């Protein structure tokens, strides 16, 4: 049987017919020659040949592909049936489209973030290597240069290791002065990543030597926006912090590199420059930890192998340099995990939730199909009588439901395209590599698979039940209480009970997550969030080399800002809350035995300007705030937060005690003059850290964040503030302008996103379950009209009938609730990692959801119950 | 007319044998369906009665496998008829099948206790 023959079956058949004709003529003539009459000859010829029709059929069938033939018939027939019942078809298709569309949209996000390889390189071999200090609960920390050099030299598992650190620099001489995020890296950075620039070249191997390091590679976005996509940009010069740098290359548009953890600029890198280490960088006593490290695994090396080898190296360093490295380990994290690991639990939960929604939709569809199949019993019985086997009928019904699935799935895929874009837009600030999220072949394949599965799932029960019932003849009238009918009803009830159970699981999960989110939002951050504006100013060292010049700038700026109308307070801080990473170091309390750096107490260090605590609304717990004098010269005083006192002073009065904080080359004891309240620096659900605050002259940073308490809308003041900055220094840009409310909202954006989506799915599930209950109850009432009529004729009141219906509905609801509770108790613990201060089996939440579901179920029974009440016994009794 | 007591050839059991007979008939020259049917009957001295209806599917199958080829020609009484001829591949298949048939006959005769081959007639 060849394909050519298959496609030209009809022509072959015609030829065959002619051939058989020719045979008949020849045989007839032969018979006539033997002496028979014409008629007799003709008849005998036919007898000899047999049934021509059958011969032709046999050959035709030899030319066809059996299953394709029947499939085409089934599809054709199914389409006709669907067109005949437009109402049913529309409802079914929409239900499926919703379910499949939602699944596809969520999967596209999951695929892009968790499954697909990164667009710009082979990311499976790339890892980020952090430092780890388990004793202090620190799992990812930046690395010191001496450690990095030793790691590079001593590791055996990486084919390349590169360090990178970002900082803000001022780009001048190209339009408006702009503060850009510059990432300084080892010369082999781009080759470790496996990335080639689209213009020019990457760093040479000696780019970190003095004299060869004034080069820069631009990001694609920066090249397009700031330099207009200039094709001759290579070898042109740009000015960063007053120094001239030569552009040597531009990266491609797909290069979406951004490691959020420990980024000092909190922005995507816009430029890359070689990292030049000062001589002090090789001395552990003179340098701190500030590097991040990316490495490429050697072929054949797995992540666990790399981790154990690096731990060995780190242990070796800890033994060699106990003063600085004791207790420190290495933490090797895959790049994928680094970028999307935080989102994995939420995404998987969303995927599970949307899968449940689809199951509920399929159950609804199954129920609908069952009801419709009951109405088609005559048609099915006739087909059985004409010789269709049970499998053929089952296949026919299954084809119809898959057909519905395909139509619904196509609509759903289209809807998913729109939904995915909406999802990305809504979550764009926090989604890494958002450009990669979209509908591609992988997602479409997933949608196709889900479609077929949904069609099968929805159709298997109806097709099994209907075809089974068909064997028992249903041609005689009054088949209402036939076994098929009863089995169908039982199936529909079972489906509804399952739907209610699944809806309960979703509603419970959503309720828990919503509660958790609101508890999170209710956390007191430790300062007043509303009406607070923040932005960053990074002064170039070339212009502001001395502490005095920096102090003068910041004082002058703050003075001007305080004069602006609408400003009630203003101050500055080296690292404000929700502003990302700040400095941390070790300290000793004067009077304690001296210990090496690795053994010291840990604290964050902040440098503040006058009025900081008042501007932020941080309460003073004991002692006093800094005086004016302490902001004019170094006076060696420090204010600490409550947690530092609790952790390291154990109830003793800290005021007057002195700390030696290891931040500078020479460290002088500083007296504690005050204790302030704790502030949640890193996030509402992150732990508070010990903090030591210094007045500005103690450690005159060149980059500070300005915080402004406004009377009205914070961002409305920006134009006047920018003018104030320009007045002081026309070449000084500012960056990271945010209202504190924005920053807090951004910090919980992930949780909010997940909560909203889960709530939407739960609501959808509730609606679908409601429809399911209504459908089953309405059908049941219509089936029992006869029975209700009899009851009423025998004296039942309307209220009795109402109770009859409601009891049936309640029984279904309670059964579903029972199953749902068991399932929910088992499943909600999977989302425990997302919950804040809410137990995964919180009884109050469970109870509330159960009540809601039962109430909704009863409401869904209401209309069918009313219809039952209005049954006219006389009509019902006559109704067959 | 079929001889009394003659077995009719039908069913898949002897399908391979029918193929063999058709191929052998065509080895002697081209023929169309009607001729082939009668030729088998005549040559077997009316013992093998081919159900002519099953002849045509068999011809179709053989053509599908490439052992015979068909073309339209004029029959003896000047009518258009579908002629079949043996292809080189078919000729090879015929030789192989004939050999296998003879082996089968010899084996059955051995079991039945008769002497092997037509030489023992």
What order do the helices and strands come in, and which of them pair?
The complex is a heterodimer of chains A (880) and B (121).
Chain A: H1 3-7, H2 9-33, H3 38-49, H4 52-63, H5 66-84, H6 86-115, E1 126-133, E2 138-141, H7 145-154, E3 158-172, E4 178-185, H8 189-193, E5 199-200, E6 215-218, H9 220-227, E7 237-240, E8 243-250, E9 271-274, E10 292-297, H10 303-320, H11 322-325, E11 329-334, H12 335-340, H13 344-375, H14 377-385, H15 390-426, H16 441-471, H17 483-521, E12 532-538, H18 547-563, E13 567-573, E14 583-589, E15 601-608, H19 612-616, E16 620-623, E17 637-641, H20 642-649, E18 658-661, E19 670-676, E20 691-695, E21 703-710, H21 718-728, E22 735-739, H22 740-747, H23 749-783, H24 785-793, H25 798-827, H26 843-869, H27 873-878
Helix pairs in contact in A: 2-3, 2-4, 5-15, 6-13, 6-15, 6-16, 7-10, 13-16, 13-17, 13-23, 14-16, 15-16, 16-17, 17-23, 17-25, 17-26, 18-21, 23-26, 25-26
Chain B: E1 8-9, H1 15-27, E2 31-32, H2 33-43, E3 49-50, H3 52-64, E4 68-74, E5 80-86, H4 88-112
Parallel strand pairs in B: 1-3
Antiparallel strand pairs in B: 2-5, 4-5
